[in-house]
Every structure is written in C-alpha cells, then in structure tokens.
Amino acid sequence: MDVRLGIEKYPLVHQPCFLAALFVLLCTPSICDGLFTWQTYKSQQLDGLQALLKAWKSTPKIESNLAGWNESQKYPCNQDVTEDIAPNWRGVQCLQYINCFYTNKENTTRDCSTYIIGLTLQNASIVGSLPRDIGYISTLTTLELTGNPQLTGPLPVTLNETSLYVLDLHDNAFEGEFPFFGDEYESLLTLDLSGNKFNGSFPYLQIKNMVFLQILNIARNDFKGPIPEPALENITQLVELDLSSNALNGTAPTLKTIKNLQVLDLSSNMFTGTLPDLTTMHSLRSVNLSRNAFTGAVLLSSFFNRTENNSLSVLDLSFNQLTTDPNFWNISELGSLQELYLDNNLINGTLNISQLHALGLLRTKITNSSSSTNSTSSVLRVLSLMNNNISKVIYDVNDIANTATVIKLQENPFCNFSDPNDGTRCFCEQFCSISGSTEDSKRKIVIIAVVVSVTSLLILLVSLAALLYRNTKYKRYLQLQVQQTSFELPHETSMLI
Fold first, then answer.
1. What confidence tens digit (pLDDT) does each residue in 299-320 have?
2. Closest Cα to residue 55, out of 144, 150, 196?
3. Whole-number average pLDDT of the chain
4. Which CATH architecture group holds 116-364+377-427?
5. Are strands 240-242 and 348-352 parallel, antiparallel or unpaired?
6. Where are the domains positioned within the chain?
7. What's the burial of 307, exposed, middle or buried (CB within 10 Å: 0-12/13-18/19+)?
8. Does Transmembrane show up as a keyword for this record (predicted)?
9. Sequential DSSP letters for 176-214
10. 474 to 460, 484, 485, 486: CA distances (angstroms)
C-alpha cells in the first residue's frame, strides 16, 4: 500500500542536522504500545530493494550474508509490528512512525509511514553489481557497502536521486570513473572510495561542490594526472584527506583553506616540486607524504607552523629526493612531533647525536628513584634516517646510555662500513648498551664469588680447628685417668698381703 506524501522532495533530508534526528528516532522505543500499527512503505523503495536482491542472487551463503532478504517478504524492517512475522533484512535501516494517523474511532489502530534510510553491509561476500534501481530509494542517507571483493561494475548515476550523507564503498571492486552527480551531493559528509578499481582523472568536478565534506578517501585506486589548483579550495570542512596509492602527479594540491585537517596522506603517488605549505593548519595529527618525488630542503619551520599547530605527532617524508641537516634543527621547529621518517632521501655527511641531545631534540631516560621503571622526556620518540648517505656519527657513551629516542641509520655508510661497536649496535641495530658496563658487571660478579668462597673456606677451617681442639682435650683427659688408675693399683695389692 502506498501513502501519498504531502511533498515531492524532503527538504529535511538535505539539512546536516538531520543525521542526529535520524539516530534519535531510530533508537527511540516504540510509542505504539497497546496499539495496532500499520507500517506503510513507498512501493518504489521496496522495488529498489528487490532489484538489489536480484542483482546479488549469486552471493554465497545468502541465507546468512543477506539474512532476511527474501523475494516473498517485502517488508525489510521491524517485522514485529507487521502482520507478517519474518526476520528483518540484514543491513537495512528504516525511519518509522512518520505521518501517523488513526484509522478508527476508538484510536486503537493507526497507519504510519516508514522510509528506508540506510543500507550497511560489511564483509557480506556480495557478488554482483549495484543496479540503477538503487535510485528508487530516494530517502537513503547512508550507503555503506564495504569489504566485498566481488562487488563490481561502475557506480550508477542514479545514486544522485538519493539523499546520501555517507557514501562508503571501500574495499570492493567497483570500476570505471566516479560519476558526476551535479549538485545533488553537496550535503555529503563522508566519501570513501578506497580500495577499488576506479580510474580516470582526479574527480575534481564531482567533488568541488561537496562543501560539507569531512572525509575524502580515494586511496588505492587508479586515478591519474594532476590535481587542478582550485580542486579542494571549497571543501574547507575536511578533517581527513587520503589520496594515497594512485598515479597522481604534478605539484601537491593547495590546502591553505582546509584549516581543520587532521590527517593528510598523499603517499605513493608521483607528486613533484616542493613540499606543500601546511602552515595554516592548526589540527594536523598525522602527515604522510612518502613515496613521491618531492625535492628541495626540508625546512620544518616553513612546512608547518608550531604556533598554529602543536598537535602534529607523526611526519613521514621518506622515499623522496629531499635534503636536510638535522644538526641545525631546533626544538621550536619540531613542536610536538614524536615520529619523523626521512628514509631514502638525499641526506649526507655527519650526524651529531651529542649536539641533538644538547639542543633537546632527543628523548632522555630519567630514572625514578622510587621505581625501577624509566620515564622519558623531550621531543622525538623515533628518528628514522635509513638508506641515506650518512658516513659519520658523533656520539659519546652517555648518548647511548641515556637516549630514549629510537634512531635508525640502517643502510647508511656509517652502518655498512664501520667496525662493530656500541654506536653501530645502537644506531644500526637498535640494541643500545655500553659494553664497558657489562665488563664491570662481570668483574663485580667474580669478586663477589671469590669473597663468598673465601668466607666459606674460613668457616670450614674454624670448624675443623674447634673439632681438633676438642679431640685433643679429650685425649688428655683419658691419659690422666689411666695414670691415676696405675697409681692406685700397688696400694690395693699391699693391703691384700
């Protein structure tokens, strides 16, 4: 049965605050206790679900992967309030008790509209494609089909007939170009296409008007070519931007207008030129620009602004063509940075560990007198400079004994051609100990063992001496007894005569 709605479009669905209202309504207990309630669906929406079931009929173990999906059971949600008792359709979310009205004078029966608003199927082994009929479900606000490697084909353009806030299709096998939806997706909050087979140029026209977008993830696809200069300037609400593992080239995209960005990943592309300017951002936590072809000197102070951003903890610039001299860094440049990766770049010369310590750039071990555990202080937790051209390292014994920062210099000339010593073991193998202190410990153990042995021997000798003294005294007593007996015998004999 179809209920005629008062409006053709649903303006409420296009407001960002609508999501919160949806969750409240979905989680509110039924207020129809004691009532008989009819749930009325739009027939087109039910047709859309049936089209999905038909397209996915080759899904293995369909009774569990698509539990409840049935051609004969047309109602997908809350079967406990319908006359047909059957399982709910897995992954289908509905908005219920809308436009309710009583159908009898006693007010014991009412009719309510139900809208399909979400479809979430994770790791459901879906086999097939996404049919055009998905557009029939016009009130759909969330579409999450993830982890289905046999879900293939292009995305239907009819997705623009839905009201999506969340489009998450990661780790499937969708292919072709990402379709152009016009202005219909301007309220989209999350767009995750990662781990598919999408191709073509960067989807600039498709996303430029998604002004409320907070998460944009197109990683692990086959997008190619440069990113136009104004591509991201309107998407100022981005919190996470992941373009990694594609074939994008040219200069890095301009990000100056995205001040709330927290996670940036441009790794494993073919970007060239200097590092992007991140100085206007104040919420960055993680930046990964590795495996590109960025060139020039790494000037951390011009790369990000500590006064604007003191939350950046991980920076990965490895596998580029960058130069820098860590000996001239200062603590004000690093800010809150805890992990810095500069592997496989063009860094050469001498690394002065002692100077880095003196500048306060490395963490040091601080022994707590009331506990056997160590705490750490200061800046970097990891400094990785592997596979560069560092030929010499300046350090002293205290640098090895007191450093809590993990320093990685593997595949540098210093590690490849130096004789094994405490420094190479610490900085090339991350096994930090002082061999001299080990010898001292062994020497102390030997001395203690000797002292214990000598003490035990002395105790034994004293015991033997005491025993011998006691035996000698006893022998002397026996001799006196014998002498006394010999003296008394003649006297007794004479008396007998």
1. 887 777 777 777 889 999 999 9
2. 150
3. 81
4. Alpha-Beta Horseshoe (3.80)
5. unpaired
6. 116-364+377-427
7. exposed
8. yes
9. EPPPP-TTTTTT--EEE--SSEEEEE--HHHHTT-TT--
10. 21, 16, 17, 19
